[in-house]
Amino acid sequence: MDQSTPTTGQPAADETVDAPTSDRVLGAPLVELKHVNKHFGALHVLQDIDLTIHKGEVLVVIGPSGSGKSTLCRAINRLETIDDGSIAVDGKTLPEEGKALAQLRAEVGMVFQSFNLFAHKTVLDNVTLGPRKVRGMNKKDAEELARSLLDRVGVGNQAGKMPAQLSGGQQQRVAIARALAMQPKVMLFDEPTSALDPEMVNEVLDAMVALAEEGMTMIVVTHEMGFARKAAHRVVFMADGQIVEEAPPEEFFTAPKSDRARDFLSKILTH
Amino acid sequence: MNDYLSGLGALLEQYDVLGAFWTNIQLTFWGALFALVIGTMLALMRISPIASLRWAGATYVNVFRNTPLTIIMTFLVLAVWTQLQVSLAADFNSNFFRLAVIGLAVYHAAFVCESIRSGVNTVPLGQAEAARAIGLSFLPAAQLVILPQAFRGAIAPLGNTLIALLKNSTVAAAASVSWETASTMKTMLEFNADYRWEIFALFAIGYVILVIPIGLLTTWLSQRLAVKR
């Protein structure tokens, strides 16, 4: 398996990727997965995964359903446990349980396919909950922070509403603001636009592109190739629990090396 | 006819029926309060990530849910008070009343726990994952995210438990709370068999009047407080 690191892969990206991402210098390794294995019963969903994401890098994970890409994403903040191997965030190996794990999760932002906003709390309370209860921020500061983040993702005028009163696109942008409120080191996006009506996909992707341009480290499981081309440094293609191919986005989409990737791309590109 | 009415009137003057109902309302209030506290803790144990706590919670529920309330009440009086000499108050009546409250609370806590658990099942898994993802550990996540939604989803079954608790408060007779409704009714029947139908009707209607509002209230609350998704 080709395990070229982004630092060696980056010069190639510089030649092919558009302006917003090409001039960025990637930092030290931030998320490191080493020999990660996971089974769901007899199914080997993650097979000896080695993957390093560097500070400031935007990584897109792509692949057919059942390839293990969501599981990989969820394993990084231990919403899925792993059978063996190790996952480290900012040099710290994921703790098993308890306070240490909660602390680590606070530094890893997560955006879910189904938004998962707290249904009994207003938009504003959704965003302030983490800063207040985990970070111990006072109410006034937390609300100030929340309002600025909600403005940033374009839903500042919805602060007083309940999640159910918002459209899917608005809910997902609130979810992004909620994750950002924890000032995370890395953001995980688990198919953030898959549950959205088509006309709402772009508003969420725009917020994500803006975030990428600000230098946030992002791991994005998605099929949105427009986003991958615009904002990603690297595309990882997964199939059957393995990383089959990794390459800069232009290279991956125009000249995939593996048969699996060619096959997959031909299926999603024909329409 | 006049004899009949004056006889009935004398009967109601002789026995404190309203006072008897008031006793059952008090038993229900305290029993429900403690059952809610114990039941919530049990529910937390049963959904906690710690296996031994889950086991302890499940054991409690299975033991107390499957033990007849009469046996629990009798045990409290004959074993805990008479044998172990655990007294909860200096005077007899307060002591029996408190023992009965404990009996009602520990028994119904098992049902409260299961009601809350059914409420927890109405909360999508994603809510707990989102809570964990922003760095909340189990207890804060339960307190801030899961239980507030679970209680709203558990109002109807909790209402059923409250109704059962109100009617089961008559079992306090087994804990020697002799001034509550069932005991009062029994005494009245014993000495006034002529009025047996009237006495039965009196107590039956009394309970219906108490229970119907609980049902209406919980139905109204469960709709009003439902979490919109």
Automatic annotation (TrEMBL), chain A:
<keyword id="KW-1003">Cell membrane</keyword>
<dbReference type="InterPro" id="IPR017871">
    <property type="entry name" value="ABC_transporter-like_CS"/>
</dbReference>
<dbReference type="InterPro" id="IPR050086">
    <property type="entry name" value="MetN_ABC_transporter-like"/>
</dbReference>
<keyword id="KW-0029">Amino-acid transport</keyword>
<feature type="compositionally biased region" description="Polar residues">
    <location>
        <begin position="1"/>
        <end position="10"/>
    </location>
</feature>
<keyword id="KW-0547">Nucleotide-binding</keyword>
<protein>
    <submittedName>
        <fullName>Amino acid ABC transporter ATP-binding protein</fullName>
    </submittedName>
</protein>
<feature type="region of interest" description="Disordered">
    <location>
        <begin position="1"/>
        <end position="21"/>
    </location>
</feature>
<comment type="similarity">
    <text>Belongs to the ABC transporter superfamily.</text>
</comment>
<dbReference type="InterPro" id="IPR027417">
    <property type="entry name" value="P-loop_NTPase"/>
</dbReference>
<feature type="domain" description="ABC transporter">
    <location>
        <begin position="31"/>
        <end position="265"/>
    </location>
</feature>
<keyword id="KW-0067">ATP-binding</keyword>
<dbReference type="Pfam" id="PF00005">
    <property type="entry name" value="ABC_tran"/>
</dbReference>
<keyword id="KW-0813">Transport</keyword>
<dbReference type="InterPro" id="IPR003439">
    <property type="entry name" value="ABC_transporter-like_ATP-bd"/>
</dbReference>
<keyword id="KW-0472">Membrane</keyword>
<dbReference type="GO" id="GO:0005524">
    <property type="term" value="F:ATP binding"/>
</dbReference>
<dbReference type="InterPro" id="IPR003593">
    <property type="entry name" value="AAA+_ATPase"/>
</dbReference>
<dbReference type="InterPro" id="IPR030679">
    <property type="entry name" value="ABC_ATPase_HisP-typ"/>
</dbReference>
From TrEMBL, chain B:
<dbReference type="Pfam" id="PF00528">
    <property type="entry name" value="BPD_transp_1"/>
</dbReference>
<dbReference type="InterPro" id="IPR010065">
    <property type="entry name" value="AA_ABC_transptr_permease_3TM"/>
</dbReference>
<protein>
    <submittedName>
        <fullName>ABC transporter permease subunit</fullName>
    </submittedName>
</protein>
<dbReference type="InterPro" id="IPR000515">
    <property type="entry name" value="MetI-like"/>
</dbReference>
<dbReference type="InterPro" id="IPR043429">
    <property type="entry name" value="ArtM/GltK/GlnP/TcyL/YhdX-like"/>
</dbReference>
<feature type="transmembrane region" description="Helical">
    <location>
        <begin position="199"/>
        <end position="221"/>
    </location>
</feature>
<feature type="domain" description="ABC transmembrane type-1">
    <location>
        <begin position="21"/>
        <end position="218"/>
    </location>
</feature>
<feature type="transmembrane region" description="Helical">
    <location>
        <begin position="66"/>
        <end position="84"/>
    </location>
</feature>
<keyword id="KW-1003">Cell membrane</keyword>
<keyword id="KW-0029">Amino-acid transport</keyword>
<keyword id="KW-1133">Transmembrane helix</keyword>
<dbReference type="InterPro" id="IPR035906">
    <property type="entry name" value="MetI-like_sf"/>
</dbReference>
<feature type="transmembrane region" description="Helical">
    <location>
        <begin position="133"/>
        <end position="151"/>
    </location>
</feature>
<keyword id="KW-0812">Transmembrane</keyword>
<feature type="transmembrane region" description="Helical">
    <location>
        <begin position="96"/>
        <end position="113"/>
    </location>
</feature>
<feature type="transmembrane region" description="Helical">
    <location>
        <begin position="20"/>
        <end position="45"/>
    </location>
</feature>
<keyword id="KW-0813">Transport</keyword>
<comment type="similarity">
    <text>Belongs to the binding-protein-dependent transport system permease family. HisMQ subfamily.</text>
</comment>
<keyword id="KW-0472">Membrane</keyword>
